[in-house]
Structure of YlbF family regulator:
Amino acid sequence: MAALLLHAYELGDMINRSAEVAEYAYWKAVVDQDEQVQQVVRRFEKAKELFTETERFGRFHPDYNEAKDKVRAIQAELTTIESVSRFKQAEDAVDTLLFDVASQIAGSISDTIKVPSNAPVKGGGCGSGGSCSCGSGGCG
């Protein structure tokens, strides 16, 4: 068991040294230091808070659609910022790397082992009217 854990730590270290993780860390730092992004994120958090309040009553709340549209508009504005879109691409690349590694490990044990993925499921996930928990916590 100790040897297996040692190999798992080595694999983790190799993943941390990968180009995908380096790209992710770079764009995360850029996003974290970008004042424009931080301003839009603050506006997004306020809009999301208002939407959460209206969501308790659902579409029957008089401001529900307006609050939902505002959240989506601010989220769309965020995605137009280059550092955010690059960060999302880097995040997807790391997710793909981790999924590929997990799939390889699971496949070497059995073809029937399921590997979790962040890919949206048909009929659910982002954009299907579900909860506001996809990606960076936004509605979409």
Q: What stands out?
A: Residues 99 and 116 are 8 Å apart (CA to CA). The domain at 2-107 is CATH 1.20.1500.10 (YheA-like fold). The two ends are 43 Å apart (CA to CA).
